[in-house]
Amino acid sequence: MTSKPTEQIAAERDESGDEGSTEQVLTPGRVLDHGRYRLLSQVGADKRCNVQLWRAKDGVLGRDVALTILVGDRSDAEAASGARRTLERAMHASTFNHVGVARVLDVVTQSSSDPTGVLGLVIAEWTHGTDLLDLVAEGPLPPGTAARLLQPLAAAVEAAHHAGLVLGADHPQRIRVTPDGEIRMAFPGPMAQATSSDDVRGLGAALYLLLTGRWALGDAPEGLPAAPTGPDGNLVAPRTLRPTVPLELSTVAVRALGNPDSIGTTGGVRTGAAVLRVLEQHATFENSSASAQGARSTESNEVWRREDPKPDKAKRKKLMISVGVLAVATLLVVGWIAASLIGMFTETNTGHNTGQVIGETGNRPGGQQQPSEQPQAPATPVKITAGTSFNTSGDADAPQRIPNLFDGNPGTWWSTFAYKQQLGPGGISNGTGAVLTLDHAAVLREVVINSQSAGTKVEIRQVNGTPSMDGKLLGSAVLNAGDTSIPIQADSPTQQVLVVITQLVPSNGGFASQINEVKVSGSAA
């Protein structure tokens, strides 16, 4: 007698109903969707909607993926309807691209090859890094670090809501922290009844968790302490638990959470943009070069430090005195250098014996007249009135978000797609960016770019007719986190300028960058 393979026996048991619960069937090594996805390890579970969260291996493409597995009784009409609604929402989200959300790769409805209790799958990119609960296992984070880590997720929530989507970012085990030190929605697939207000509450709960190590939205997952409430039944503010938490961060966390008994309200904070603004004000970037190493070395990196710094008053006093002495010494040296330069130029341009200025007409050797330089007109801000996408491959990155580059609001942004390869020769594109149109022709002097994608390489090129990478290079820079000033060497007026990214930064196993704002200064033509 020929024995049947173990997986075939398991499948037959599933169809006959002899196997127990879905939890017993979904075990590491089990394969789903006609053998394509092999379960590796369970990351968590969202018991509110009968969802299991797994890391799995895609047998076709040979890569790890994140599986949001909807489980339940197929004969239960309500459960089946809720699963269909979740799968529909996930399908719509497959067109949404943002560094703060894992990209949805596929959505699979129930399959005859899957266990009886599986109602559908949402397959997304696997987010390398660490679990959000592991991040706070040893205690809350410094407030500035917490604000910085949460920014990408808050930006993603705001972008998704503008696109008419709901992320479902209100469960801690659906969120992970990337090796670059950014919090990301790792398991897409919102509950059927989820609303945009739930996403905002999720941001408040995530911030509360990072600041206090406690979960403040519904039942806390096993092993995670719940947020305390006061005698009046209201949530205790993070600042009450940790006095070092800034008032604004504490307030926005509580107000974003709102009143759980009042559906549809968020305590005055109703958008991801409102949360993002406060996060940007308090985010700290003490060591931007170390941030990318944060998830790789959790022992020595400042990014993952658990305790708040305790200021040493004596050291601060000594430091202030030292700085003051250094400032005085610097002023004296600068003054001495300035006096020397003035004396040198005076001596050079004045005749020692005749007292006549050599540069005057008739006194220059050979009778030649010394040409005088025309003073350069002062640079002033030049308004950007329009913009269009640019990409050497022809496929524009987020063209609908180009106006965010010059809307005057650093809280909005334009971002590239998530590239699998770095830009450059041999890649899918040599450069991506935008052609910006000015309200009048000007001789450009400076371009200031606001971005949080430190390490991004940007070039500023002149546009003469059709924009291309062959346009004259006016300036270039490697962006910092925040504002980066790029001096422009232009000798003729222009009314269009190409801002093009030539190198992206690593992000979630790929490459991506975002630019929040572009400002241009120049002199009149």
Structural account:
With 525 residues, the protein is of the alpha+beta class. The protein contains eleven helices and 21 strands. 27% of the residues lie in helices and 24% in strands. β5 and β6 form a beta hairpin. α5 runs antiparallel to α9. The N terminus is likely disordered.
- Shape estimate: globular
- Which stretches are poorly predicted, pLDDT < 50 over at least 5 residues? 1-20, 259-266, 286-311, 347-373
User: Mind summarizing the main beta sheet?
Assistant: 8 strands, antiparallel
Overall pLDDT confidence: 79
What's the topology here?
Layout (H helix, E strand, L loop, with lengths): L5 H11 L5 H4 L5 E2 L4 E10 L4 E8 L4 E9 L5 H17 L10 E6 L8 E8 L4 E2 H4 L7 H20 L12 E3 L5 E3 L10 H17 L25 H4 L5 H11 L14 H11 L5 H4 L21 H37 L30 E3 L1 E8 L22 E2 L16 E20 L5 E6 L10 E6 L3 E6 L6 E10 L1 E3 L2 E3 L1 E2 L1 E8 L1
Antiparallel strand pairs: 1-2, 2-3, 3-4, 4-6, 5-6, 7-8, 8-9, 10-21, 11-13, 12-20, 13-16, 13-17, 13-21, 14-15, 14-17, 18-19
Helix pairs in contact: 5-6, 5-9, 6-8, 8-9
Please supply descriptive tags for the structure shown above.
single chain, 525 residues, alpha+beta, 8-stranded antiparallel sheet, 6-stranded antiparallel sheet, 11 helices, disordered N terminus
